[in-house]
Amino acid sequence: MPELPEVEMIRRDLEKSIIGFRICDVKIHDNRVLRDVSPREFIRRITHQTIRKIERYGKALVFGFHKGAYLFARTSI
Fold first, then answer.
1. Strand runs (DSSP E) across 1-77, as ranges?
2. 8 exposed, middle or buried (CB, 10 Å; 0-12, 13-18, 19+)?
3. What is the pLDDT of residue 17?
4. Coil, helix or strand for 21?
5. Nearest CA-CA partner of 71 in 48, 50, 46
6. 77 pLDDT band (50/70/90 cuts)?
7. CB 54 within 8 A of CB 73
8. What is the predicted pLDDT for the residue at 69?
9. What is the largest CA-CA distance in the chain?
10. CA-CA distance, 7 to 4, in Å (whole number)?
11. Does residue 75 surpass a pLDDT of 80?
12. SS (H, E, C) 10-77
C-alpha cells in the first residue's frame, strides 16, 4: 500500500497528464471491483466521459467527470 505522500504525487502527475482526456474504451478485468453497478452499466456510464479533475480522498483517487459523475479508485501497490 502506498503512503499518503506517494498517492498525492501520483494525483499531481495524473492531473498534469490526463485532465481533459476522454475515455474511449473500458475493459473490466475483475467484476469484484465494481460496487452497486453492473459491468455493462459501468461501461455505459464511463465511456466518452471527459476527465475534469482528480482529487485525493485519503489514499484513494477520485476522478471527476462532467455532469457530476465520478470514479473512486483505491490505490494499492
1. 51-57, 60-65, 70-74
2. middle
3. 96
4. coil
5. 46
6. low
7. no
8. 87
9. 35
10. 5
11. no
12. HHHHHHHHHCCCECCCCCCCCHHHCCCCCHHHHHHHHCCCEEEEEEEECCEEEEEEHHHCEEEEECCC
How does pLDDT run across 17-74, given as a tens digit for each residue? Answer: 999 999 999 999 999 989 899 999 999 999 999 999 999 999 999 999 987 889 999 8
**Which residue in this structure is represented by grid cell 453497478?**
37
pTM listed for this prediction: 0.84
For the chain, list the domains and their CATH numbers: 4-74 (3.20.190.10)
Query: Does residue 45 sit in helix, strand or coil?
Result: helix
